[in-house]
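Supplementary Note 3. Input sequence used for the single-chain structure prediction.
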Amino acid sequence: NSLGKYDYFVICVDSDAATVHQREIKIRKLLERSNINLTDTSLKIIVQNPCIETWFLGNRRVYTRNPQKNRNFIEYSMFYDVSKKDPELMKKPDKFEGSISSFHFKYLKSMFDERGGMFYSKANSSEVQRRTYLKELQKRVDDEPCHLLTFINFLNFCNKIRAEIKR
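The predicted structure, written as discrete structure tokens, is reproduced below.
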């Protein structure tokens, strides 16, 4: 703010067990309590519902329709087919011990493993950083405009920035 060089202050977070709205309110309250006053900079909060791996589950080209080798992926896809249903609406199986976000993370890892030659971890996310991966996610939300709503919010913000840069 004091430098006057930035148009946006962007905060990207997972919603985890909270709703998107609850997470946004929490961030706004934290900023208020911190006495952060953005006068020349716009705040943009991007909430990944429930986590960024959920967005990555939206790539239909990576999803194997008839899984054979990864037992976890077979179970996960029987529980919820992310190629047909909105990944953001997926909960977790009752028997799964961790959080919904950790289930989505494990689902993504197993989906990559089933595909073969693909790997995902928090430390190594190169597969999802490829332009082709992003294009498939964009195609998903073009085909299914009610799926991955928080990802659409992110894309709309990116498109807004792109348009501003071109002016």
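The chain has a mean pLDDT of 95. The chain has six helices and two strands.
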